[in-house]
């Protein structure tokens, strides 16, 4: 079941997802744009040599370079094409039969009298069947001719990419009278001869003629849509051309979503060091475990001969137990990271492209909603946005987002717009939760900051090291981290205004509102001043964290997309806590939040607002325009949901333990999906069990959820060790962490230098 030679799979096997999307067996196919095709083929000479079917493939191929090309010119003659901007030359040479003329042309490339093409795509047979009326003598002559050509093609394959295109089946019922002798039985006989003869003298050599047999599979599904029963419809030809482009260009361009024909990336220095660290942790944990077991056996309930009393086993020291917990956590983490690497960096497991259908998104959504309602329990407290309720909210949102990602629903704009609200709602909770904590507790200590930063960033830092990805690649964690620091800075800078101080003097409330207005002004300024934003985050060391592909544009785009929602969360928390303090809301069990009249009015407005937003989002036609409006209007549906969920007393008093369980590990689920549930950095789907899509999703999901849960526990355990409450110990740990990141930066600089 391992991936094997994905190039061979790409050229020989696959299936259709829907009607037009071709899925190669075991790997992902990238859809090349014109600019990418030009960059790959710059200064290259490509030759298509054969009959009318090869001519069709030639036109589809050059349209990937220049879509404006029209199928003009002599159909039974040579057709040149040149793109001067990229120095690309593509020629079609009309040789409808495998005969002496074709052999002579191929031989001229091997003798050096003519420059060798970089890519040669050849194939022919139907003309031989047609001209000789499908006779056996013609087939025998074809075998002789291809036997004479095969050594020349194999010789060219040592320095060029040579492809032999097998003949596609025909739709016999649609063939004209002059082509009735071209039967699928004859075509199979010619294909069998070509496959048997080609590479017969170089079976153990790496330089081989690549047999392009996948077009046969594509033709079987689409030939009935042919105009004449012989030539493929345009969509099928385009698929064949895209396969050719992937075979040649993937190893050059290395697209993330093009895993076919890509070699396994070499281990970096930092990855090797991480491997050594985890190996030593596993060895260290096993040694300590063995020592403890031996000590336990020696001291186990052995009776003292003099007193007749039992001796208690020796109690391990706190430092020893801390070291054991540390090594145990790193031991588990090392095994988990090995699984991550094998899934998404080693060519061990298969990967497939996503394919969206309405059923693949909405049926799982309905299923998990039914499950969530089934696991309904009473909450411990009935306050607005209590802990169980926020965990439930995070949980169902995360499950919907996971289904959105694996189903490829981003291509359906109404779903995309609603998912954007879910991401905004998570950031709303960030603003609400952190503001509430600082406002009520007044705890601005270093310990609290370090605990939050560690829990948010630990897994991502480890993945950046193991998976060789930049920090900004996992964009959501930098987003919540920066917003946490903004909330902290807003409330911690002088004057520090907290609830206890504000209760003594109402003027402090106005002081806090003034702070929030200043924050809103800064957000507004940065959102409309891309230059100022990029200057701030282009300074070292911030640039090392927030750059992606050499610039911070992606970070600016992500930040701008939900720029106001954290502020809305902070403002909602401030208003709610002020109302709660003045006992203007009722949060008793079963009681509506306000008086019956006000509750009914607010509930009606909330339902109308919720539905109005959904109607607007569903009617979106342009993603760019809708994204521009989203930061200002997403809060409408978020507030509507909060009021619908909390105004009725009964609804506020219950929660789904099923969703709440997932909510507690929502951050780990979001990050882990990148590599062990999805594949190719979220662009595709991980295939552990090929051929059984539903069973594969069940197995990979089970492993994925278990791993996320385990990582959550590891993070919590390590947070207690790495971030202690004692300030002097914490300072020492912070110095160690600073040293670690300095070393990481040094090795990263070494890697970059060696790559250049």
TrEMBL record:
Keywords: Acyltransferase, Glycoprotein, Golgi apparatus, Membrane, Transferase, Transmembrane, Transmembrane helix. Residues 253-734 form the Cas1p 10 TM acyl transferase domain. GO terms for cellular component: Golgi membrane. GO terms for molecular function: N-acetylneuraminate 9-O-acetyltransferase activity. GO terms for biological process: carbohydrate metabolic process. It catalyses: CMP-N-acetyl-beta-neuraminate + acetyl-CoA = CMP-N-acetyl-9-O-acetyl-beta-neuraminate + CoA; a ganglioside GD3 (d18:1(4E)) + acetyl-CoA = a ganglioside Ac-O-7-GD3(d18:1(4E)) + CoA; CMP-N-acetyl-beta-neuraminate + acetyl-CoA = CMP-N-acetyl-7-O-acetyl-beta-neuraminate + CoA. It is an enzyme of class 2 (transferase). It is found in: Golgi apparatus membrane. The chain crosses the membrane at residues 269-291, 355-375, 396-417, 452-468, 474-494, 506-526, 561-579, 600-617, 629-647, 659-679, 685-709. It comes from the Eukaryota. Belongs to the PC-esterase family. CASD1 subfamily. PANTHER family: N-ACETYLNEURAMINATE 9-O-ACETYLTRANSFERASE (PTHR13533). This is N-acetylneuraminate (7)9-O-acetyltransferase. It comes from Herpetotheres cachinnans (Laughing falcon).
């Amino acid at each position: 079941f391992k991936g094997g030679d994905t190039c061979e799979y790409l050229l020989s096997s696959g299936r259709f997802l829907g009607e037009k999307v071709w899925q190669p067996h075991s790997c992902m196919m990238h859809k090349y744009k014109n600019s990418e095709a030009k960059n790959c083929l710059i200064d290259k000479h490509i030759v298509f040599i054969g009959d009318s079917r090869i001519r069709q493939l030639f036109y589809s191929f050059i349209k990937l370079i220049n879509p404006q090309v029209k199928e003009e010119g002599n159909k039974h003659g040579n057709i040149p094409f040149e793109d001067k901007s990229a120095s690309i030359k593509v020629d079609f040479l009309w040789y409808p039969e495998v005969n002496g003329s074709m052999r002579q042309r191929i031989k001229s490339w091997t003798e050096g009298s003519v420059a060798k093409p970089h890519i040669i795509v050849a194939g022919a047979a139907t003309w031989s069947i047609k001209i000789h009326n499908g006779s056996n003598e013609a087939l025998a002559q074809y075998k002789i001719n291809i036997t004479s050509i095969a050594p020349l093609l194999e010789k060219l394959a040592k320095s060029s990419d040579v492809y032999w295109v097998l003949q596609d089946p025909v739709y016999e019922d649609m063939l004209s009278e002059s082509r009735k002798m071209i039967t699928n039985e004859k075509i199979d006989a010619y294909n069998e001869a070509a496959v048997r003869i080609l590479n017969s003298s170089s079976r153990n050599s790496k330089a081989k003629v690549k047999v392009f047999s996948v077009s046969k599979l594509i033709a079987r599904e689409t030939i009935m849509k042919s105009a004449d029963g012989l030539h493929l419809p345009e969509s099928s030809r385009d698929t064949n051309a895209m396969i050719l482009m992937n075979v040649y260009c993937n190893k050059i361009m290395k697209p993330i979503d093009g895993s076919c024909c890509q070699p396994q990336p070499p281990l970096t220095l930092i990855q090797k060091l991480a491997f050594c660290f985890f190996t030593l942790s596993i060895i260290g944990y096993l040694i300590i475990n063995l020592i403890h077991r031996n000590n336990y056996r020696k001291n186990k309930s052995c009776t003292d001969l003099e007193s007749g009393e039992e001796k208690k086993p020796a109690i391990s020291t706190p430092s020893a137990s801390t070291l054991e917990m540390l090594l145990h956590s790193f031991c588990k983490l090392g095994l988990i990271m090995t699984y991550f690497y094998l899934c998404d960096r080693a060519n061990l497991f298969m990967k497939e492209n996503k394919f969206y259908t309405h059923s693949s998104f909405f049926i799982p959504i309905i299923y998990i909603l039914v499950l969530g309602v089934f696991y309904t329990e009473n909450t411990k407290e009935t306050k607005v946005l209590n802990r169980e309720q926020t965990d439930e909210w995070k949980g169902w949102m995360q499950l919907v987002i996971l289904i959105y990602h694996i189903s490829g629903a981003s291509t359906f704009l109404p779903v995309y717009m609603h998912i954007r609200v879910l991401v905004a709602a998570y950031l709303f909770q960030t603003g609400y939760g952190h503001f509430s904590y600082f406002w009520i507790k007044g705890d601005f200590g270093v310990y609290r900051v370090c605990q939050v930063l560690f829990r948010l960033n630990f897994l991502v830092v480890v993945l950046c090291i193991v998976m060789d990805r930049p920090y900004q690649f996992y964009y959501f964690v930098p987003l919540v981290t920066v917003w946490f620091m903004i909330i902290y800075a807003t409330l911690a800078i002088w004057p520090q205004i907290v609830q206890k101080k504000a209760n003594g003097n109402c003027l402090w409330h106005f002081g806090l509102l003034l702070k929030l207005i200043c924050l809103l002004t800064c957000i507004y300024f940065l959102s409309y001043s891309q230059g100022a934003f990029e200057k701030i985050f282009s300074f070292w060391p911030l640039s090392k964290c927030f750059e992606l592909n050499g610039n911070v544009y992606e970070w600016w785009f992500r930040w701008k997309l939900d720029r106001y929602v954290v502020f809305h969360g902070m403002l909602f928390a401030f208003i709610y806590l002020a109302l709660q303090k003045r006992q203007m809301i009722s949060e008793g069990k079963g009681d509506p939040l306000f008086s019956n009249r006000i509750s009914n009015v607010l509930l009606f407005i909330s339902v109308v607002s919720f539905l109005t937003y959904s109607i607007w989002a569903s009617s979106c036609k342009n993603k760019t325009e809708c994204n521009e409006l989203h930061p200002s209007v997403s809060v409408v549906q978020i507030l509507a949901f909060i009021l619908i969920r909390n105004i009725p007393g009964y609804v506020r008093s219950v929660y789904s333990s099923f969703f709440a369980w997932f909510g507690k590990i929502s951050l780990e689920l979001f990050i882990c999906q990148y590599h062990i549930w999805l594949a190719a950095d979220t662009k595709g789907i991980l295939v552990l069990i090929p051929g059984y899509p539903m069973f594969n999703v069940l197995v990979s999901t089970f492993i994925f959820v278990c791993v996320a849960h385990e990582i959550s526990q590891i993070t919590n355990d390590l947070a207690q060790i790495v971030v202690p409450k004692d300030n002097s110990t914490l300072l020492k740990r912070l110095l160690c962490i600073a040293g670690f990141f300095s070393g990481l930066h040094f090795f990263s600089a070494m890697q970059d230098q060696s790559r250049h």
